Structure prediction request, 273 residues.
Amino acid sequence: MFEEKRSRFVLGWMTGASIVVIFILLQMTGNVLLISVAMQLVFYIVLPLWLCSYHLKKRGVKLRQVFFFRGTARWLLPVLGLTVLVLAFSMSIYWLLLRALMSVAPTAVEFALTPQQLPDALWYLVATGFILAVIAPIAEEFVFRGLLLTRLIATFGFWNGIGMSSLIFGIFHINFFGAFLFAVVASLLYLKTGNLLVPILLHIANNVVAMYQSFVNPSFPKWLMVTSIDDLYAKSLPNLMVLMISLAFLLFIIIQLARGAENKIAEDHSLLK
Prediction:
């Protein structure tokens, strides 16, 4: 046991030292885009991998117990439907938030609607897009659902754990309300299936569309997306209708997913170890 802890300690220090050396070398190149990609990789791969592997080993849970392909195929269509609903809710609630802020902080709203200049380097856009659309969802689901959610449920109970983990997830995202509801759905998907791959697929599908909107077509879908101050008022009716309809469907789905999920995790102790 002592030798095992000592090995992990040495490995941890070696990994940390290697990261520092790599960043020093990158700083010497003066390539800001390369440094940015390296930081993203450290944040979304190195740190989550170290954190999750440590806690899985500590809990005595094997990876195949919480991440597997068996039975995932039947969730593909529901995941696609949930992606549409979550994105529709996120876009419409973002419109409502900007409308509310317009009367108290118009400068902030104008800044939020101003398109951000993207770098001309194609390799950077491809690398960043892949990291945010694929790697980030995997890392975030392991950390927020596989690790944080289970710990909070074990400590504070079913709904309190879901609410607290979703709140923390929302704080790390610009569209807080959209991210919060997404986290609730993702949490229930994991608790219902016992498989992190299902919320990972939902997260990837959501982020792929978000990357398309950011890098390719910022006005997609044109009839709903708000890209200017005028759109806040001109697109009020479609956004309000989409908000009410998507919220109603999502609340119904949340109730359906929650049925039996609490009993399932009580029986499957590997989720809450």
Notes: The first helix runs from residue 2 to 29. Residues 26 and 35 are 6 Å apart (CA to CA). The two ends are 21 Å apart (CA to CA). The chain has a mean pLDDT of 88.
